[in-house]
Each structure stands twice: as C-alpha cells, then as structure tokens.
C-alpha cells in the first residue's frame, strides 16, 4: 500500500508521459518514407491484414526499430541518472565521460578479432563501458578532484578510446563495426535477435535500479549523512556504476553511439518532479523512451524520403543543452 501511495504521489506527470509514449510508439509504426494510415495499422495490429506490404513494413521494419528505440531510451536515461547520482556530478553522461567510447572500442576490437562470435559483442561492450566508468570512479575517489576536473578527464578518456577505435578500424577495415550508422548511432539495423538478447539485460538492470532507488536518493544528501542513515555507500555506488555500464554497453552493442539522452533526460525529470523524487527512475525510463522514439521519428520525416541516423538528431538537441548546463551558474543545486 505504501508503494502504491508513493507512485501515485507524482501521478500527473507520470501518467501524462505514459500516454505520450503510447502515442509516439503508434506514430512511429505509421510514419516514415511510406506512411501507414490509422485504419491500416489497426488491421495489422488485430491480425486482419497479414499479406500486404504495409504489414511487412510494420512487422519486420518499424516494430523492431521502435522497440529498439524504446529500450535504448529507457536504458540511457536510467544509466545517466545512475552516473550523475553515483558520481554526484550533474554533467556526468555516458557520452561525455568516456563510457560510450570505451564500450565502442571494446565492441570494435572484439568484432575485429572474433568476427565469428559477433553475437557475443554485448559482453565486450559491457566490459569496455565498465572499465571506462571505473577509471572515472577511481579518479574521483583517489584524487578528490573537482567536478570540472573529472569532466575534463572524462573527455580526455573519451578521446583516447575513440582514437583506439579508429586504429582498430584502420588495421581491420573489414570489421562490420565500421558502419556509419553504428558509429553515429541508429535504430534502423537492430535485429529481433539482438532485441531479445539485450532486453533481458536492460529490463533486469532497470528493475535492480528500482531496488536501489531509496539508497541512491540518500547519496544526494552527502556521504556522511547517507552513512549515518545506514546506507552502505561504496556498495551502492559501485552497484550503480556497474548497472550504468551494463545499460550503456547494451545500447552500444545494439545501436552504436547514442548518448545525449543520458545527459538530458535526468535533468528534465528533476525539473518536472521538483522535490517529488519517489518515481525518479521509472519516470526517467519513460521520458528516455519518449525522447528516443521522438527523435527517431524526426530522423525519418525531416528529410523524407531520405533518412538520417538518429544520433545526428540527438546531437543537435543535446549539444545546446550541454552548453546550457555547462554555463548555468545555478546548476550547483540541480542534484539537491
């Protein structure tokens, strides 16, 4: 009963965003180079139309793509929230502090050295993300550096791993991970097998994050306060970073370098919820899915019949937002 009361406390933005997500999901099935009408979609969804071209487009192209956008948006948003909370840095994000770049390097290297084991790239992607996030974590812990220093160190780490990835692609030009869509970020080449495999890791990580949510909220009060309240600080922080790396690695292995969702969504959710943080993680997941699907729709219709990778649209949206956070002097209270 207490849990139900807690979730209903923020019901207006939560249910409003859920309705918007459902609308965008259906719109994503309809919109593209070939538009599907509402009546056609209903016939497809209720199995009244299984032989037409429209059915094949929805079933084998747009549905897997939309589901990939849904899962990746959820994963990145929750990953960003975990990173920002664990490192207590409002500018921490998988694409800024080197997590994505480390994951990409491990994925490209694994694909180049073991092309016959390409279905296992998720594990390489996760290990690369984990190494990156642990490097940033230990740098934070051992040097007591400022947030700006940690951020710049993450940028340097990202550049280093990007250079390593470019080196591997140069030495192994036949690796399939050199695809433009993968390096920019796209949902268009995700297969159903990848979706089924990665969905378990993404949904499982988000479920475990929900268990940690109360302790994560206490971390924002400061280490000393959290410790006095009985929070096992180091275990919670390491678990958060581990889950963040698993979520980011799952996204990179499926869709390539998609990043700004992890930076933008947690901030937008804090603005919407204010001091009501009891539904932070589920709300982040929903808003992340909204942003991913919305930007994917834009990537299809902005220059129709031509299509651009969704990573380009997200960069156009995310770069100004990052600059705003970087220069906004009031951001010192954004995690409070």
UniProtKB/TrEMBL annotation:
One of its GO terms (molecular function) is transmembrane transporter activity. The chain crosses the membrane at residues 12-32, 66-84, 90-110, 117-138, 150-172, 193-212, 241-269, 281-302, 308-327. Its main location: membrane. InterPro entries: ABC_BtuC-like (IPR037294), ABC_transptr_permease_BtuC (IPR000522). It is found in: Cell membrane. Pfam families: FecCD. It is a multi-pass membrane protein. Keywords: Cell membrane, Membrane, Transmembrane, Transmembrane helix, Transport. GO terms for cellular component: plasma membrane. Belongs to the binding-protein-dependent transport system permease family. FecCD subfamily. This is ABC-type Fe3+-siderophore transport system, permease component. It comes from Sphaerochaeta pleomorpha (strain ATCC BAA-1885 / DSM 22778 / Grapes).
């Amino acid at each position: 009963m207490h849990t139900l009361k807690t979730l209903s406390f923020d019901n207006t933005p939560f249910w409003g965003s859920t309705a918007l997500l459902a609308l965008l999901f259906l719109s994503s099935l309809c919109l593209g180079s070939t538009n599907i009408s509402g009546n056609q979609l209903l016939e497809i969804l209720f199995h009244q139309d299984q032989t037409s071209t429209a059915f094949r487009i929805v079933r084998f192209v747009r549905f897997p793509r939309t589901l990939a956008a849904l899962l990746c948006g959820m994963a990145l948003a929750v990953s960003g929230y975990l990173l920002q909370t664990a490192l207590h840095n409002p500018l921490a994000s998988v694409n800024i502090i080197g997590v994505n770049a480390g994951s990409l390097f491990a994925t490209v290297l694994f694909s180049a050295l073991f092309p016959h084991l390409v279905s296992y790239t998720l594990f390489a992607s996760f290990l690369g993300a984990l190494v990156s996030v642990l490097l940033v974590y230990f740098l934070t812990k051992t040097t007591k550096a400022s947030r700006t220093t940690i951020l710049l160190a993450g940028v340097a780490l990202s550049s280093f791993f990007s250079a390593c990835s470019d080196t591997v692609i140069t030495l192994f030009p036949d690796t399939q991970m050199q695809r433009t869509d993968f390096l920019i970020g796209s949902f268009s080449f995700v297969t159903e097998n990848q979706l089924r495999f990665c969905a378990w890791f993404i949904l499982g990580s988000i479920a475990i994050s929900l268990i940690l949510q109360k302790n994560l909220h206490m971390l924002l009060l400061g280490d000393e306060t959290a410790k006095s309240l009985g929070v096992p600080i180091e275990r919670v922080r390491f678990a958060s970073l581990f889950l963040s790396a698993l979520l980011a690695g799952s996204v990179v292995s499926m869709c390539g370098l998609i990043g700004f969702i992890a930076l933008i969504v947690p901030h937008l959710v804090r603005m919407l919820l204010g001091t009501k943080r009891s539904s932070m993680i589920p709300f982040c997941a929903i808003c992340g899915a909204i942003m991913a699907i919305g930007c994917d729709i834009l990537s299809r219709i902005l220059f129709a019949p031509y299509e651009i990778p969704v990573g380009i649209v997200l960069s156009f949206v995310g770069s100004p937002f990052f600059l705003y956070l970087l220069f906004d002097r009031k951001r010192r209270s954004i995690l409070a």
